[in-house]
């Protein structure tokens, strides 16, 4: 490292403090989530993964769940949210939540996982792939990303600062510094077409059914569909309109919202 750069860094020494373990025990099971998008709901997470598990717990009938969104993602399992903090002091990652629910309800799901038959269960895998592929890609581009030092440092292919001081980097048109841009982007035409077709397919398959794939009770797929529809309504105008233009999705999403969180949704 060049001497001038070492001298500069010496003015800002890096101090690393040991992490603190969670010692408190909540009075009731508490789900740690990313904060809500207040334009769509005061309590439903803006993050698809968090909202999926928030919906899953409620739709399985677990009603005494408290919420916290004042915790950094670093506090979750493997540095990610959601995490379920139990009164016993245990902290569960998403993969352990279904087993915990089964133990609380004392009625684990059967091999059909709540679906009508094997065909419906197998079909659910295709819908999960569609949502977590096509729809997720559109949301990932559209939903604003908030700048933080951690995000900056974790960004792949970040410019090496030493190399930056040693050579001149060509800048893209309009850029004045080699810092990644955080904020809302516009999905490509291809991404929007695939997203529109996916939302139309979801609308057609739901039809007038109470639950997805005609199940008699909500399944994990219903939690996932709800999470993506809700988060899409907090995305760009193009993504919102694809949902809002389909009345059955709008009414279904509102119905499920009332089951998950009785607080009134913004009109």
UniProtKB/TrEMBL annotation:
<dbReference type="InterPro" id="IPR050931">
    <property type="entry name" value="Mito_Protein_Transport_Metaxin"/>
</dbReference>
<dbReference type="GO" id="GO:0001401">
    <property type="term" value="C:SAM complex"/>
</dbReference>
<protein>
    <recommendedName>
        <fullName>Metaxin glutathione S-transferase domain-containing protein</fullName>
    </recommendedName>
</protein>
<feature type="domain" description="Metaxin glutathione S-transferase">
    <location>
        <begin position="196"/>
        <end position="255"/>
    </location>
</feature>
<dbReference type="Pfam" id="PF17171">
    <property type="entry name" value="GST_C_6"/>
</dbReference>
<dbReference type="InterPro" id="IPR033468">
    <property type="entry name" value="Metaxin_GST"/>
</dbReference>
<dbReference type="GO" id="GO:0007005">
    <property type="term" value="P:mitochondrion organization"/>
</dbReference>
């Amino acid at each position: 490292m060049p001497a001038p750069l070492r001298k500069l860094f010496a003015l800002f020494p890096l101090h690393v403090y040991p992490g603190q373990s969670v010692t408190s025990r909540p009075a009731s099971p508490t789900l740690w989530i990313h904060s809500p998008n207040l334009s769509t709901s005061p309590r439903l997470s803006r993050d698809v993964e968090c909202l999926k598990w928030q919906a899953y717990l409620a739709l399985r009938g677990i009603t005494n769940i408290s919420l916290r969104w004042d915790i950094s993602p670093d506090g979750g399992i493997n540095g990610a949210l959601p995490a379920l903090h139990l009164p016993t002091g245990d902290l569960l990652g998403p993969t352990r939540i279904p087993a915990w629910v089964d133990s609380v309800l004392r009625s684990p799901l059967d091999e059909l996982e709540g679906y009508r038959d094997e065909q419906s269960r197998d079909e659910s895998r295709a819908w999960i792939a569609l949502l977590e592929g096509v729809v997720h890609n559109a949301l990932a581009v559209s939903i604003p990303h908030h700048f933080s030092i951690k995000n900056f440092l974790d960004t792949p292919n970040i410019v090496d600062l030493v190399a930056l001081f040693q050579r001149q980097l060509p800048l893209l048109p309009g850029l004045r510094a080699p810092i990644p841009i955080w904020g809302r982007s516009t999905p490509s035409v291809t991404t929007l077409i695939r997203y529109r077709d996916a939302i139309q397919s979801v609308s057609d398959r739901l039809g007038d059914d109470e639950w997805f794939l005609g199940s008699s009770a909500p399944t994990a797929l219903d939690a996932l569909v709800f999470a993506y529809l809700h988060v899409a309504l907090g995305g760009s105008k193009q993504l919102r309109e694809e949902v809002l233009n389909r009345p059955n999705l709008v009414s279904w999403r509102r119905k499920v919202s009332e089951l998950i969180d009785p607080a009134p949704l913004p009109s």
